[in-house]
Amino acid sequence: MQPSRDIARLIEIMAALRNPDGGCPWDVEQSFETIAPYTIEEAYEVADAIERRDAEDLREELGDLLLQVVYHARLAEEKGLFRFEDVVEGITQKMIRRHPHVFGDETARSARSAKGQWERIKAEERAEKAAARQARAASGGDGWGATALAGASPLLLDGVPSNFPALTLALKVQERAARVGFDWDAAAPIHAKIAEEFAEFDGALTEGDADAMEDEFGDLLFSLVNLARYHGLDPEKALRRCILKFRSRFNHIEESLVARGASLEAASLDEMEALWVEAKRKAQAVPV
């Protein structure tokens, strides 16, 4: 079998790998559940390549992510659920429907009106999806997606995937709740809430209650996400930026010590702190 630019070849390769007769033993054993962590990992690797502005890595990582889509579609086809072509048809239908200002008769062209149309159409889609899910549940379903109880009303937060990174999940849940007015209308109450949660964490710390400490620390983080959201900031992006900054400065400490013939293990905290400050000053001196 030869490589190809045609998506059909990738689908053929996946079918061959999953073939119980002569396929790859590892691939044959996989399921939706075992492959899902790799799917998430590949999405993060795409984001990492973009962050590093590495076009060659991005090309490769996009291929790895595409493989994950083909993999799940193959698993679904084997179960008689849907095929890769159904995935393509579904997303093309969704994009055409969500952009009536491009593919339909609506003439509004501004970014604001496009966003409004997008949100309106997404709300319609959520309602349709909830109705379809209930119908599957009532009929016994196909074992996939029929998790809602027959006759139950869809809940507002049901559409937020629970496997988002925690900060992003907090942001998405808050955004969804804010749509119905469950939100702060000023920054001051959020600051007060943060102070309240910090005091409660401090109290749990004083009592030495590990479970309460974890609970209160979660409340504190959730409140900080609220503050970030109020100011239009992405908490996940902000934390990643902080981590990258920390790594850069810590790398400077290690590299400086190695250049002196020393090591991290042998260095004192004062030495490391001095190099940390040096790295910070160098970063601040770099023109943006």
From TrEMBL:
Broad EC category:
hydrolase
Gene3D superfamilies named in the record: MazG-like (1.10.287.1080)
A GO molecular-function descriptor? ATP diphosphatase activity
Q: Which catalysed reactions does the entry list for this protein? A: ATP + H2O = AMP + diphosphate + H(+)
What are the residue boundaries of the NTP pyrophosphohydrolase MazG-like domain, all occurrences included?
A: 30-103, 192-252
GO terms (BP aspect): dATP catabolic process; dGTP catabolic process; dTTP catabolic process; dUTP catabolic process; response to stress; TTP catabolic process; UTP catabolic process
EC number of the protein = 3.6.1.8
UniProt-listed InterPro entries: MazG-like_dom, NTP-PPase_MazG-like_C, NTP-PPase_MazG-like_N, NTP_PyrPHydrolase_MazG
Report the SUPFAM superfamilies cross-referenced here: all-alpha NTP pyrophosphatases
Report the family membership: Belongs to the nucleoside triphosphate pyrophosphohydrolase family.
Query: What NCBIfam families does the database record attribute to this sequence?
Result: mazG, PRK09562.1
PANTHER family per the UniProt record, alphabetical: NUCLEOSIDE TRIPHOSPHATE PYROPHOSPHOHYDROLASE (PTHR30522)
What's the name of the protein? Answer: Nucleoside triphosphate pyrophosphohydrolase
